[in-house]
Design brief:
8% of the residues lie in helices and 64% in strands. It has 218 residues and is mainly beta. The chain has a single domain, classed as Porin. The chain has an eight-stranded antiparallel β-barrel with strand order 1-3-4-5-6-8-9-10. Strand 4 and strand 5 form a beta hairpin.
Length: 218
Amino acid sequence: MKLRWILTLAGLVWTLAATAPASALEAVGLTVGVDRTKMSGDEPPNFRLQQGTGFKVGAIVEFTLADDVRLSLQTGYQRTATKLGFKDKATGDVRDSLDLDVDWINVPVILRIETSHSLFATGGLDLAFLTGGGITGGGSDVPAESFLKDVDLAAIFGVGVAFPVGRYELTGELRYRQGLVNLARENLGERLATVPPRFRFAGFQLQVGLTLPWGGRR
């Protein structure tokens, strides 16, 4: 069922690209980036929530809404990587960590507002579907689906800059992604002591995109 949802949403994005009138479809392209994320919530006893570095890859389809406003639909794969550090009971320092890696299929829907000097601002929502991952290290091997809900919804805010490269447009963007829903499965605190009973993911993303104008635009 989860795979069916993912394929359906990805198909809708690309159907929009294929059926949109030439006057609305602006560009298509690819994006890659890195992700610095931390689990937010009350820290469990003897653990510290820590940041980790993940990555993301995806495809972009952009539509013109107004002279300086675009709608950017994106599909892709994201690896969220965080850590759960063991705290030393005597000093409170972290002496070892578990790895918490989560795999998602993301479908961000973003508004891109152009400003002067090739700068732009972005904002929107990111719908993410859990596909795998889990907690590993220190003898632990806990699959993500045992403690994470299947669907995440997050708000995205960002700023970026665009450069023409021949017929292409090269963009660099810094985003902040804030989870909006509790991702912990019910009664989690009674079953898994290493993560908070309620938590979200939040962090920064730095991504680079390369787009090609559709139908000779620009």
